[in-house]
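User: Now give one protein:

AI:
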Amino acid sequence: MSRRPDDRVREALRDAAAPGESQAEARSWAVVREAFVERERQAPPMRLRARAAIALAVGAVAAIVALTPAGADVREWIADAIEGEEDARPALGSLPAPGSVLTESRDGVWIVRDDGSRRRLGDYRHATWSPNGLFVAAAEGRELLALTTQGEQRWAITAPAGIESLDWSSDDGFRVAYVAGRELRVVAGDGTSDVGVRNRVGSEAIAWQPESDPSRAIHRLAFVDGVDRVTLTDTDSGDVLWRSAPIGAPVRSLQWTTDGKRLLVTGDGFGHLLAADGRPALKAVAPGATAATLSPAGEALAVVRPRARGGSELSLVPTAPAARPKVLYPTRADATGTFGAPTFSPDGSWVLLPWPDADQWLFIRVADGRVVPVGDVSRQLDADRRGADAFPVVAGWCC
């Protein structure tokens, strides 16, 4: 059968070179390349501007992508350069495990529930769950508040200095610890009896020890002193129960197992596990780590670190001696950026892995590494739609 005239015309147009095509292609490649170089130069708060540059660059080569054979190569190159999972959900749906995620974003503190619904609690900078997720303690500047999960205020106090971190006790819930400036303070769970515990601490990292005997409430708080020793104190009596040996480097975070028998101490490039008496239980448990989180039962760590040949990975590192780690999620060797701090689901079956450069949350199943990616996270936690200038931080996955 002979071809129709319009078919012949279409083929001729497709094969013909547009006037100045090769020069336009070269200029467009230069624009795209410069856009991606600029993207790598920018710090995280400039992410949206870099993405705008990328969008303009992609628009500049749209004609070439559509009309020339070189377009296929351009499309493939752009897809490889943009980070993240290609099949990410466009919206936060139901969580893969029970509980609710508490986040801190530029637009304030949010709760993402397991059915996918979201609620903004207010314009706060720091947040922490109360026991069983019944309330949230939040802070902005010198103000510390207790809120319901609907955002209703129960009480508020004014701290002597700007609040840098806070933690609600995990036993009877009747203590909230916070660092104001460099002073460690504790307030009762009803907003009364705000007192100083230490005039100066060496880190913002604090963590209440969970009670091992449900019939007897304890109020024991771990913090870091001025010479990088982890210290456990009874905040009721003021007694120091133990001090660890000097860690030898600044401590970024402290995290207890749910039974209160082991304490994870992490900083830049290291992770140590202490026993309940402060003695080393396992040293160098996460060498090279940029972030590490202890599983609820304490049998493993979720560790983020660079890969030997480039890129980053999330590994599951058993806390048992001589046990072998397992890589749950690796990036490509040429991937830029890294992951944020991982967070376990309350039952320990999933890990929420933030990927700031991709603007994604990756939910990764511990058993088999299955990945459920969610994209466009910053926009979904930005009620005023002004554009988030910092990727949301996960403050906890509770209950």
About this structure: The chain has six helices and 28 strands. The chain has a mean pLDDT of 82.
